[in-house]
Structures are given as structure tokens and as C-alpha cells.
Amino acid sequence: MAMTRNVFDGLSPDRRERLRDVVTEVSFPDGTRIFEEGRRADRFWVVHSGQVTLDLHVPGRQAAVVETLVAGELLGWSWLFPPYVWHLGAQAVRTVEAEQYDAAVVRALCEADPVFGRAMYRTVAEVVAHRLHRSRARLLDLYGPQGSGVARW
Q: What pLDDT score was predicted for residue 1?
């Protein structure tokens, strides 16, 4: 599978090479549950193609979709922050081709090389911050004064 532009492109070439050494290529057919909210977060992915929805369990109702991820995006960040439990669920809605990483192996690389670790934490934190901002804008669109959720970035 050819490398597409992804979330780790901002890492230095030698740091990206460390990740390439531990990657596995995977595929998830349409409808596959990739992970469940509340379960152990022991891996993560970078999506190459397809589409993944992130959802939140709502008691007594169908899960609420809170985000849709496409090529180049990081799927899963809970693996980096204790207690390593998924905060959302994920499902393939179009067949997904992705790079899969073992979370324990990547965390060990982060511990062994503090510069690499800092770069990984920063990259993942930027993803989390961006998603939080998008979620805030969607909430404002739904519940705020008209036009208040318009993105300004």
C-alpha cells in the first residue's frame, strides 16, 4: 500500500522511519466495529482510504455519531493517555485501508527516545485539540445562536 499524506508527516524522517518499522497494513470491510467505547485501547491506526465514524454510546438509543474520519487521519488517541481506554466507538462505513500500530510498542519507543516521545505527544495532542474545536463548532451550530459555530480557522 502506498504511503499517503497522514498525520505523522510532520515528524522528522528518522522518527517516521521508526513508525514504519512497527506498522501493519489492515483492512476493515463496511460495517466492521473497529473498537468499542470503554474497552482497552491497545492499538491505533492511520486511515489510508475509506471512512470511519466515531460514535458515543447513548443509553436507550442508537449510538450518536460525533465525527467522521477519512484518509490521512489518526484513528484513536486513547492509547497514549492512561488508563488506555477508548473514549468513543469506531465503525468502518466505507471499506477502510489503514496502517495499524501496536500502542505498547509505540509507547515504549516514546519512553526510549524522549525527543520522539515529545513529537508523538505533540502530534496526538494537536489531533485531539483540532477535534475538540470541530466538536465545539458543531455544538454551537446545533444549540447556539445562528451562525455561531462557523469555523474561523
A: 40
